[in-house]
């Protein structure tokens, strides 16, 4: 299987509008971060998208992806769902609704934000989705077993997802001991890290991630959902403990 980072930035992306810091003005492509999303390609070449934010169209074109078989949503914040309307060309091409897998709360929010996609009589050109409500237990889709990982983002539960010995978690500020058990023995753990210091009410910062790396002991840990406050990629990546890396847009991982 393969995971490709379509975006590794926070809700504002990097560069941030109006910011002239060294990260936002960097000429290194690794310092430009679209909103967080990944594409998982199965051994049977099925495409599993995790989150569909405002940069979805640009991400698909930039990374030469041309279809999505299913989409998993972590939670309902706009930087993770508002690009769903841009799935229309994929829907028109196949003539099939895009299956969305998410919690019941997120499903309700998707219906509220895209009511025209679920209308009994849709206008021509409207997107069409097939909603599947999932709970915090493993499920199988496109011949792939997926295990949700429930984490807390400020006060709301958010799903991360585990495939084989890889887990992808974004927008987390707390992981319970029960959910940590699902993250032990991993080859690859992908975890959000918004900045180096200054505790955040909804996101892990670097000391939190280092502590989790030492506790969970994955073979490798990649940081994502990164803001411009974390620093320049080529500088900060070298300062991380051995086995930890900054992800960047376009990075591919085989697992």
Automatic annotation (TrEMBL):
<dbReference type="InterPro" id="IPR036866">
    <property type="entry name" value="RibonucZ/Hydroxyglut_hydro"/>
</dbReference>
<dbReference type="InterPro" id="IPR001279">
    <property type="entry name" value="Metallo-B-lactamas"/>
</dbReference>
<protein>
    <submittedName>
        <fullName>Phosphoribosyl 1,2-cyclic phosphate phosphodiesterase</fullName>
    </submittedName>
</protein>
<feature type="domain" description="Metallo-beta-lactamase">
    <location>
        <begin position="34"/>
        <end position="225"/>
    </location>
</feature>
<dbReference type="Pfam" id="PF12706">
    <property type="entry name" value="Lactamase_B_2"/>
</dbReference>
